[in-house]
Design goal:
80% of the residues lie in helices and 0% in strands. The protein is mostly helical. The chain has two domains: 177 residues, Growth Hormone, Chain: A (Up-down Bundle), CATH 1.20.1250; 205 residues, MFS general substrate transporter like domains (Growth Hormone, Chain: A). Helix 3 runs parallel beside helix 5, helix 3 runs antiparallel to helix 15 and helix 12 runs antiparallel to helix 14. The two termini are 27 Å apart.
């Protein structure tokens, strides 16, 4: 039970740091817009813009971030990103307590946090293969994904409790503390990281970024993974832009019932992360990955199909959200593990940044199109378009060489 990575103290330190910062990130996702709403009386447009700008760094500087990570030691980037995130987010409650907080400060904080979180995400996914054996990648990513899933479930409750009893700025203080704890945990890792390869000749960071994208688009396994990720990110953002409005206005659900649906269905997040390693061993990594994407699309189909008596609507929505929540960590674990296994160490940063571009950088565009589509053709119709797009992502993998991959290649 406690073999494998449970006996790797350096991995456990990385896992602890990532877990704490994930919880802090979920708290910030709630606390930052609530700070704008409660303390600055922000309008819906201002709140929407605040959420949108946090995804811009992945779209604008994602490939450059990957090139930078490949030129430097990853642990140093992780530690620096944590400390800088702690300082940036702590500046918001400081401004609040000194009566100087303004909306433009929150925009700057959101952009800075998006940029630093991008660097952290790319660096930690690139750092993991240097801490564990290749055969342990799926186990390691499963444990890290378990933390993400647990944070997605527990984080809103923790953040909501802090905001309820102390206020949104105090929740941001808790977020800053989480990053400090993560930095300290990462600092105690003892295993020495190999020196990264330095650029040859006059190769600049822009050329490195270009070569990283070329590598991703030319690789027989990574190319379909990248295209599927970009398709999934775009169309899932369309769904995210309208599904709450549809549940509220189209299905006439109260906030309490919506919360209940998410609470029950969200249990699938932890279950999916827990069984990912076992499913890969039984079915193979390609089948697990392709099947997870297919389940994501089928599960989201429950949203526009839900109808009839209220109990039936609740059951359909819970089953759909549970299926989506179960498949999401399966997809993340297998996609990241396979990508790490087939990519050389000196290209990990650029490869991981490409996937951040695909999954996160597409969110602002997809969300904007989803909102416009919901306004012009209807919320339910937009959901059907989003589901169809997610199904295309699954087909891209099912028709690619990825489906036939049984285990992580050497």
């Amino acid at each position: 039970m406690f073999g494998g990575l449970w006996r790797n103290p350096d991995f456990l330190k990385l896992w602890l740091g990532q877990t704490v910062s994930q919880v802090g990130g979920v708290i910030r996702f709630i606390a930052l817009p609530l700070t704008a709403i409660i303390t600055l009386d922000a309008s819906p447009i201002e709140v929407g813009l605040l959420l949108a700008v946090s995804g811009l760094p992945a779209l604008l500087i994602g490939p450059l971030a990957g090139a930078y990570v490949d030129r430097h030691k990853r642990r140093s980037i992780l530690i620096a990103s944590d400390w800088l995130r702690a300082l940036v987010i702590a500046a918001v409650p400081v401004a609040y307590f000194t009566d100087s907080l303004q909306m433009w400060m929150l925009y700057l904080a959101a952009i800075a946090m998006g940029s630093l979180s991008l660097m952290f995400e790319v660096a930690y996914r690139s750092y993991l293969p240097s801490l564990v054996e290749r055969s342990e990648l799926v186990e390691g990513n499963s444990k890290l994904e378990l933390s993400r899933s647990a944070a997605d479930i527990a984080g809103p409750g923790i953040g909501g409790a802090i905001i309820q009893f102390a206020g949104a700025p105090f929740a941001l203080i808790a977020d800053a503390v989480s990053f400090a704890v993560s930095a300290i945990s990462l600092h105690t890792i003892k295993k020495q990281e190999a020196e990264p390869d330095r650029p040859v000749g006059d190769a600049g960071i822009f050329r490195d970024a270009k070569s990283g994208l070329q590598y991703v688009l030319r690789h027989r396994l990574i190319r379909p993974l990248f295209l599927a990720a970009a398709t999934l990110g775009f169309f899932n953002a369309m769904i995210d832009a309208v599904f709450l409005l549809y549940m509220t206005n189209g299905l006439d659900l109260s906030p309490g019932l919506i919360g209940l649906v998410f609470a029950i269905g969200g249990v699938g997040l932890v279950l999916g992360a827990m069984v990912a390693n076992r499913l890969v061993a039984i079915a193979g990594i390609g089948v697990t990955l392709s099947g997870a994407l297919a389940i994501l699309a089928l599960s989201d189909l429950a949203l526009p199909l839900a109808g009839g008596p209220l109990p039936a609507v609740i059951v359909v929505l819970v089953l759909g959200l549970f299926g989506f929540s179960f498949a999401l960590p399966l997809y993340r674990v297998t996609q990241v593990s396979l990508s790490q296994a087939v990519t050389e160490s000196q290209l990990h940063g650029r490869m991981n940044a490409a996937f951040q571009l695909a999954l996160v950088g597409t969110i602002p565009v997809g969300a904007l199109l989803g909102g416009l589509s919901g306004e012009l053709i209807g919320l339910r119709e937009t959901l059907f378009i989003g589901v169809a797009g997610e199904a295309v992502a699954a087909v891209l993998l099912l028709a690619s060489p990825v489906r036939s991959v049984k285990s992580l290649p050497d």
